[in-house]
Design brief:
This protein is of the alpha/beta class. It has a single domain, classed as Rossmann fold. The protein contains five helices and five strands, in the order βαβαβαβαβα. The longest helix is centred in the last third of the chain and has 16 residues. The protein is globular, with a radius of gyration of 13 Å.
Length: 122
């Protein structure tokens, strides 16, 4: 992957968050924060200005979808939702990019690369 991104992870399962962070760092990206709540995700996005967000759609404390909507009102940020129930995310946001949990690292890598390619497009 040629473009290193500053990535915000929003995931309320600690182990999945750590695993995602390690995987993204191995891919050459910088993980600027791993947050577990809607409020913390919004604060982290303001603080670290991520290039990309990987967001669990359904959080125990708030909503990843609501966090993304709030963050993107002030500054559009490409994002990928991860969810054990991709159909529910698509029902709420039909155009969302969703990776179904559990996922293999290469699936997430491909999705991130597609987003990078889209960002580079004129």
């Amino acid at each position: 992957m040629s473009t290193a991104l500053r990535i915000l992870i929003v995931e309320d399962d600690f182990m999945i968050g750590i695993h995602l962070a390690e995987m993204l760092e191995e891919m050459g990206h910088e993980v600027c924060a791993v947050e577990a709540t809607e409020a913390d995700a919004i604060a982290a996005a303001e603080r670290c200005l991520p290039d990309l967000m990987i967001v669990d759609a359904w959080l125990r404390n708030g909503s990843g979808i609501a966090a993304v909507e709030t963050i993107c009102r002030s500054r559009p940020v490409p994002h990928v939702f991860v969810s054990g129930d991709a159909a529910s995310v698509k029902a709420v946001l039909p155009t969302a990019v969703v990776v179904e949990k559990p996922f293999r690292p290469e699936v997430l890598t491909r999705v991130i690369q597609r987003l990078i390619d889209g960002m580079a497009a004129p």
